[in-house]
Amino acid sequence: xxxxxSQHDRIQRSFEGLLSPEEQAALEADVxxxxxxxxxxxxxxxxxxTLRAERDTLTSLFEQSPATDKPAISTPVxxxxxxxxWSALAxxxxxxxxSGWIYSQDLILHRPVAMLAQADxxxxxxxxxxxxxxxxxxxxxxxxxxxxxxxxxxxxxxxTMEAPATLEVLTAxxxxxxxxTLTAEVPESAHGFTIDTADLKVVDLGTRFGLSAGSAGNSQxxxxxxxxxxxGLASGETKRLTEGKGLHVNSGATTxxxxxxxxxxxxxxxxxxxxxxxxGRGKDGYARRGDVGAPxxxxxxxxxxxxxxxxxxxxxxxxxxxxDLSQLxxxxxxxxxxxxxxxxxxxxxxxxxxxxxxAVYGITDPALDNWDEQELRWDGVPGCDDEGPAxxxxxxxxxxxxxxxxxxxxxxxxxDTLVEFIRTKSNGLVSFLIxxxxxxxDTSGLAHAxxxxxxxxxxxxxxxxK
Length: 466
Fold this sequence. Notes:
Blueprint: H1 5-15, H2 21-33, H3 35-53, H4 58-63, H5 81-110, E1 114-124, E2 136-137, E3 140-153, E4 158-171, E5 174-185, E6 194-196, E7 201-204, E8 208-214, E9 218-225, E10 227-231, E11 239-242, E12 246-249, E13 266-267, E14 273-276, E15 283-288, E16 301-304, E17 317-324, E18 336-340, E19 356-363, E20 384-385, E21 388-389, E22 394-402, E23 411-414, H6 416-423, E24 429-436, E25 448-451, E26 462-465
Parallel strand pairs: 5-6
Antiparallel strand pairs: 1-2, 1-3, 3-4, 4-5, 5-8, 6-7, 7-10, 8-9, 9-12, 10-11, 13-14, 14-26, 15-17, 16-25, 17-24, 18-23, 18-26, 19-22, 19-24, 20-21
């Protein structure tokens, strides 16, 4: 029996990396079970391997004269020769099979499966793949620090990354969102296109959806059109989401309350002293209206969000940070910088939030510096009432902006008002509120986040003074 045309096509698509993980697994199972398909697979693999191995010698081979002037030499037959010949043949087969396997892997890894179709205000860092527009992309990682980038897979699926985000391109039908946010538009031809995160696996059933993966181990998917299948859940369940539906998963990949990696103030060049919230009596946290999941003091992220949409009111979040200045004379501070490290929150989508303005408030009442990180709740955010920072106990010191799709690098806030405020502190502590003043156009808008002192690898909020 001969293999069918469709069987040949499956094998060829496998070599080109165009099969989804499920299709690849099904092919491998069929190859084991079906001797006709197995023979066809081996023949095609052998053909690829041979052509590659002989590509350098074929030319010289054809250039050789087919005839030779040397007389043939008669060689006596030796009894052990057939054994040696069969041994050599067996070794050659092994080497051929091995080279074929290596070649097939090399073919899959280096064959383009996607293209970088568009890049708006993009900055890249740590990418393994080319980042110029129209670049062909094979298997590898893209790390977007700022901007919005669109990747068009050969299967027809289109993925738009919103910085900061890291994406691993695997095949034309499969990729992995390491962290950050993306939206995916998948035509019917790419039915089965799959995106993994640390918490879940999204299999498209012909639709448009958004997916985010936080650096602290949580993922969110929302379906804009059509339907997706969710797998890879810790419960082992498989779920289906239809248009307008969403799912949030927190795998706990990062354990809240982890000890900080930077627990000391550091003397830096130029006379600067860097004081992280992990030093001394420093602390940080955030609270969400409604206190779902509270308290958030030990959380690895400080998440902030503002919305004017009635349905999104309970998603409002505010951050608070306190630094220990007990080893310094605050009255002598000449310069000050507040450094925050933005991190993916895993909540919401950047495309639904405009460029966002944030405000830093100083908490003027010394008694409020003694807030309890382990008990931080919405009603207990120091210096705030339900509407926002209270004028009687806070003072607005500075503003900063984060554009849509950025920023992936640390933010440094500088202001004379920051210095003046620190000089007024005499109790060895200084506290700030971090709030977002820009709203959103949809209740699924992005929630911004900054690393807290519990984050496993990012820099905690740091006050640099001299």
